[in-house]
Amino acid sequence: MKQLLFLFSISVFFLSSCSMQEEIDLSKEGNGYYQIDVDMSAMLEMMKSMGGSEKMPDSVAKQKKDTTFSLASMIDSVGGNFTPEDKAYFHNGTMHVKMDMPENKMNMVMRFPVKNVMDLKNFFRVWTQVDSLNKIKKQQEQALEQGNDNSMPNMMDPSKQFSNGSGLPVKPSPYIITDSSIERIARSKEEITGDMGEQAQGAAMFMGQISMMTTIKLPRPAKRVEGKNAKLSEDKRSLFFSATMQEMMDDAAAGAFKVIF
Q1: What are the residue boundaries of the structural domains of the chain, listed by start?
Q2: In this model, does residue 105 exceed pLDDT 70?
Q3: CA 192, CA 105: separation in Å to the nearest integer?
């Protein structure tokens, strides 16, 4: 059981999934959003190929779910000093979970409202603070749950795992944002694995399978784009980025880009 929980811990909390698609829509003033789509279907298939399905209770192995819920508890449960405007990102944010265990399908889509580029900057500030507070909370909870095998059904049920304030399955991307530019910062292998913790060593074999894609719909045409894996649409109103986690760990520049508009 510990080996199986370790596998799920890597997959859900440390991004060992098939793909992550990040989308930022700033094309309409006052009506934008930040969205991240995490597909963990490949993880389920891999786990079953390693015999993990034999250790699953039927309540998990046969589970099917298609649900959407608020992310309000993410910020309400961690404490901290947040303004009503800060809380609104999570109170109006949603997570859509679609799961079909017999078919090896698991997908989570999180969406947060943002008004414009500077509101996006503030959202990342709030998310980083929530993530930091949730990390402390999670450490405290894990200390209490050690040796409790009943934790497995919750780990395999994102609607319970995340709606109860246990933290988001991804960390905010490291961006520098101004009113005329969006830049993703280059991160070293040490910084990436540092976020993943001790479990990073166990996830190393899957890095080549993890892809990160980003689409940014800009408020106006771009003047310039920088980054080896970033390109603009023909009308220069959208940026597209794609790289594997292994590429970003081998070359920090592979994960960086900057668009000026």
Answers
A1: 2-260
A2: yes
A3: 27
